[in-house]
């Protein structure tokens, strides 16, 4: 069975003591490839280092996360753009909107998000979108911009209606640990939309699935998420992992 983790921050300091073991556990769990997005300009170098150390098992994406956007965001975008000119990346991320913590830089977040989506279009790269308390706003911006980009709304736990609009945009949704939490009914959304628009992700070290909830997350825990989706949909784990892996290969085609 093949699993692809389409979004994990494995360069994070929380793995410094056991990163090689953690990656080994991922391989033993059937994870064949991991996409790693930076979040700000300081996380680019450790991300590239992990790409080298892992000999391409971890593939980098680049972008500026909405929580890192402030009045000086253009200088951060410039740094990311310089990297894009000199190093191969496999997606634009992590980008998006986050109105959960702070709306002070709402306008700047929207400008930075759209600007980076335009990079994705120009470079024919998929996006990895973060949208916390801002999924409707992110969908609306993309509908209005009509860029025709591919990619993933990462860590999706929204409604069927939102999923339908994302599908209509030609985008897909990342299913992670949140799908294993009580009261989250992502199975119903997948049933309604169809398997073709979903991929797996962990967002490690965050959002560990049950039964590891509250602990540090890692890519090997994709198996818990797979099990949950398989139970919810009453479809074999093999069929789901195959469908989601094929979707990942279609979207992140430059990795394969
Ligand atoms: Zn993330």
Briefly characterize the structure.
By secondary structure, this protein is α/β, with parallel strands linked by helices. It has helices at 19-28, 44-53, 73-86, 106-123, 135-145, 160-168, 186-193, 222-233, 237-251, and strands at 3-5, 31-37, 58-61, 92-98, 127-132, 151-153, 172-175, 198-200. It binds zinc ion.
- End-to-end C-alpha gap: 17 Å
Class per helix and strand makeup: alpha/beta
Bound molecules: zinc ion
CATH architecture term: Alpha-Beta Barrel
Topology order in helix (H) and strand (E) letters: EHEHEHEHEHEHEHEHH
Gross geometry: globular
Q: Unreliable stretches, pLDDT < 50, 5 or more residues?
A: none
What's the gyration radius in Å?
17 Å
Provide a count of the helices.
9
At CATH level 3, the topology is TIM Barrel
Considering DSSP H and I runs of 4 or more, what fraction of the residues is helical? 40-55%
Count of beta strands: 8
Strand residue content? 5-15%
Biggest sheet descriptor = 5 strands, parallel
The average pLDDT score comes to: 97
* Order of strands across the main sheet: 4-5-6-7-8
The number of domains is 1
Specify the CATH class: Alpha Beta
């Amino acid at each position: 069975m093949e699993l692809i983790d389409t979004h994990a921050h494995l360069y994070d300091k929380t793995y410094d003591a056991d990163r090689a073991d953690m990656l080994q556990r991922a391989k033993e769990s059937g994870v064949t490839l991991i996409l790693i997005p930076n979040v700000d300009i300081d996380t680019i170098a450790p991300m590239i280092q992990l790409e080298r150390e892992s000999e391409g098992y971890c593939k980098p994406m680049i972008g500026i996360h909405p929580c890192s956007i402030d009045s000086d965001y253009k200088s951060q975008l410039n740094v990311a753009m310089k990297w894009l000119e000199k190093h191969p990346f496999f997606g634009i991320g992590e980008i998006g909107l986050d109105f959960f913590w702070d709306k002070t830089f709402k306008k700047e977040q929207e400008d930075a998000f759209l600007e980076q989506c335009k990079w994705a279009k120009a470079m024919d790269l998929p996006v990895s979108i973060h949208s916390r308390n801002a999924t409707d706003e992110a969908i609306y911006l993309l509908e209005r911009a009509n860029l025709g980009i591919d990619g993933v709304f990462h860590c999706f736990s929204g409604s069927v209606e939102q999923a339908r609009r994302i599908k209509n945009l030609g985008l897909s949704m990342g299913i992670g640990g949140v799908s294993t939490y009580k009261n989250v009914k992502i199975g119903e959304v997948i049933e309604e939309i169809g398997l073709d628009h979903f991929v797996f992700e962990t967002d490690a070290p965050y959002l560990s699935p049950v039964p590891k909830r509250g602990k540090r997350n890692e890519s090997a825990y994709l198996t818990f998420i797979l099990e949950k989706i398989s139970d919810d949909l009453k479809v074999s784990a093999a069929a789901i992992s195959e469908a989601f892996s094929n979707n990942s290969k279609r979207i992140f085609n430059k990795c394969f």
